[in-house]
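Good day; I would like, with your permission, to put a structural problem before you. A protein sequence and the structure tokens that stand for its backbone fold form the material at issue. Thank you for your consideration; the sequence and its tokens are set out here:
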Amino acid sequence: MGSSTILVVDDNEANRSLARSTLEDEGHRVIVASGGEEGVGAFERENPDCVLLDVRMPGVDGFEACRRIRALPGGADVPVLFLTAQRDIDTFDQAIRSGADDFLTKPIRPTELAVRVQTALKLRRMGTELRQHYEVLKSQRDELLRVQLQKERLMAFVVHDLKNPVSAMDLNAQLLLRDAGVPESARELARQIREEARQLGRMILNLLDLSKAEEGKLEAKLSSVELSAVVRAVFDDLRVEAESREVTLRADVRVDRIRADPDLLRRLLANLVENAVRHAPRGTAVAVTASQADGEVDIRVADAGRGVPADMREKVFDPFTQLESGDGGRSRGGRGLGLAFCKSAVAAHRGRIWIEDAAPGAVFCVRFPNGR
């Protein structure tokens, strides 16, 4: 295959440089332009085989530049790939209407960019019949992506709109608990309301962080954290639920401090302990242990419940995956969000999470690198 000419139009110099070096490494000739007007002019002069267009640019933006290129001689059949940091359905719809062939979200991933450009160039050389088949598949792919973007928008709205009423529920429950005139039966109900509100709050935050993780935006803000203090705080939050199920919480933390994101670490442990408490039989214990070796910290959360079958120990970390309990109880995957969040939180720390057999029960194991 001979060298192809690629036009890269982006007002960000770092993005242009990354795209240029990536594509030149693949053997392509690369022309760059720093704006839409300059990009249209470069297309007329150079007649490139493929165009990469940034969406948001001052003056002539990517949408208008694409429309102008499509109107030029030879511009109708040249593949145009949009690059954008705006992963939303409005941007996607505008890109399709303006004549885009593909849609890549920033930050640019060099391997993905090289593959997408190579695919676009191959499709351009296809015969008429094959191109017709491709157009059908592309239409189906675009519709699937549009549905995914709609789901992400709905999730963002749901998360935003639920946070305030859940916080109000928790606050009102606290006010009832502080009122000395409230009878004990009502106080117990208020404690249950507060516990459920906390669980719902964790679910909402899990949804938000899973959305961030899908976009590659979930980052761990590392600091030195006292691990035993985090475990105590998690136990305090879950003590009411554990006592209502007659489950004992035990800790054996042999690590002083760990380098981690305090919020992500606490919510990670809260999800794992809550999951263990829900599946621990009455009269048993949930144990959290932590040890350190070779600059790594291992945290283990063990219960004596039904355990997780070996063939499902990877799948339970996927969103909305649940295992049937088989006895009318709650399924092992819980609500399908907590364990998915745990996987994303551990990945943000460049760590590892897995499940071992406790015989009986399950042990959820987390390993953090360079924990100190």
